[in-house]
């Protein structure tokens, strides 16, 4: 009996240790999840406070929901105009990024030419250079050439500085597509360009969708280039509108947070609508590469 009890204890000991490890890991992940979610919840309920309530306690819940903060935020920032500017710049930038990334990524994946390795290194180098270090040179260049303060001003840096990662993702994905498909298309009489756009482009739709969504996030939320290159208030984008809530001596934080919630709304909707596609596209590109 004593031997059986000892054997049972030995069997239970590893199970208890395994359960303890799982409990600790789940606890850590739960704390991490809470730390990520709480700032968003805090932003949401703080946007429904009055300035006096926020000043008294930044953590407490609002006594009454003040939705007028959202109305004031829309009026103060002229949110419809800012949103229109952001939509226009973001849409044009994303379309150009996807198109250029696909063509360049396809060439890198399929064609052999002199300087190809140097070209890939150049794209990798683009991931290493901090964009904010180039703000002053870009500002001086745009000022001298008269490219600043136009509706298309932001499209140029957005496309130029966001191409490296999409090109590498596309080239990695296209490399995994069998070449026999293109050979069969050539036998059927399709030209190089028709094969690229009619056969390969639809097959690369998962990674192109991922690129489009990620670049939508990047262009919509971009602040630094918009701040430096746009002085005309009618050309400003949504992130720049957040500066309207700050006066010389005070800041209306509940209204500012209401504006932030409104600015985050399109990005949040896009993320929850396409989160599975983002993960699938990035994983597919990584596996195929």
From TrEMBL:
<dbReference type="InterPro" id="IPR035906">
    <property type="entry name" value="MetI-like_sf"/>
</dbReference>
<keyword id="KW-0472">Membrane</keyword>
<feature type="transmembrane region" description="Helical">
    <location>
        <begin position="196"/>
        <end position="218"/>
    </location>
</feature>
<keyword id="KW-1003">Cell membrane</keyword>
<feature type="transmembrane region" description="Helical">
    <location>
        <begin position="87"/>
        <end position="108"/>
    </location>
</feature>
<feature type="transmembrane region" description="Helical">
    <location>
        <begin position="23"/>
        <end position="45"/>
    </location>
</feature>
<feature type="domain" description="ABC transmembrane type-1">
    <location>
        <begin position="83"/>
        <end position="274"/>
    </location>
</feature>
<dbReference type="InterPro" id="IPR000515">
    <property type="entry name" value="MetI-like"/>
</dbReference>
<protein>
    <submittedName>
        <fullName>Carbohydrate ABC transporter permease</fullName>
    </submittedName>
</protein>
<keyword id="KW-1133">Transmembrane helix</keyword>
<dbReference type="Pfam" id="PF00528">
    <property type="entry name" value="BPD_transp_1"/>
</dbReference>
<keyword id="KW-0812">Transmembrane</keyword>
<keyword id="KW-0813">Transport</keyword>
<feature type="transmembrane region" description="Helical">
    <location>
        <begin position="154"/>
        <end position="175"/>
    </location>
</feature>
<feature type="transmembrane region" description="Helical">
    <location>
        <begin position="120"/>
        <end position="142"/>
    </location>
</feature>
<feature type="transmembrane region" description="Helical">
    <location>
        <begin position="253"/>
        <end position="274"/>
    </location>
</feature>
<comment type="similarity">
    <text>Belongs to the binding-protein-dependent transport system permease family.</text>
</comment>
């Amino acid at each position: 009996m004593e031997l059986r009890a000892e054997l049972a204890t030995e069997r239970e000991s590893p199970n208890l240790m395994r359960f303890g490890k799982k409990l600790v890991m789940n606890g850590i992940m739960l704390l991490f999840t809470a730390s990520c979610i709480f700032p968003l919840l805090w932003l949401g309920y703080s946007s429904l406070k009055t300035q006096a309530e926020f000043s008294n306690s930044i953590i407490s819940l609002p006594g009454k929901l003040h939705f007028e903060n959202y109305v004031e935020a829309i009026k103060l920032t002229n949110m419809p105009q800012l949103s229109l500017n952001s939509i226009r710049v973001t849409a044009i930038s994303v379309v150009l990024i996807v198109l250029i990334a696909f063509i360049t990524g396809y060439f890198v994946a399929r064609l052999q030419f002199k300087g190809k390795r140097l070209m890939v290194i150049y794209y990798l180098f683009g991931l290493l250079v901090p964009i904010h270090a180039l703000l002053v040179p870009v500002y001086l260049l745009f000022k001298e050439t008269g490219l600043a303060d136009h509706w298309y001003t932001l499209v140029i840096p957005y496309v130029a500085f966001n191409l490296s990662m999409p090109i590498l993702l596309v080239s990695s994905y296209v490399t995994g597509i069998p070449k026999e498909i293109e050979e069969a298309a050539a036998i059927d009489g399709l030209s190089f360009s028709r094969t690229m756009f009619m056969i390969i482009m639809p097959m690369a739709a998962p990674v192109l969708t991922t690129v489009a969504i990620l670049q939508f996030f990047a262009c919509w939320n971009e602040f630094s280039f918009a701040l430096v290159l746009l002085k005309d208030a009618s050309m400003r984008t949504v992130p720049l509108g957040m500066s309207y809530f700050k006066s010389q001596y005070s800041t209306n934080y509940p209204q500012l947070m209401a504006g932030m919630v409104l600015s985050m709304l399109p990005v949040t909707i896009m993320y929850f609508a396409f989160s599975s596609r983002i993960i699938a596209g990035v994983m597919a590109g990584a596996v195929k590469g």
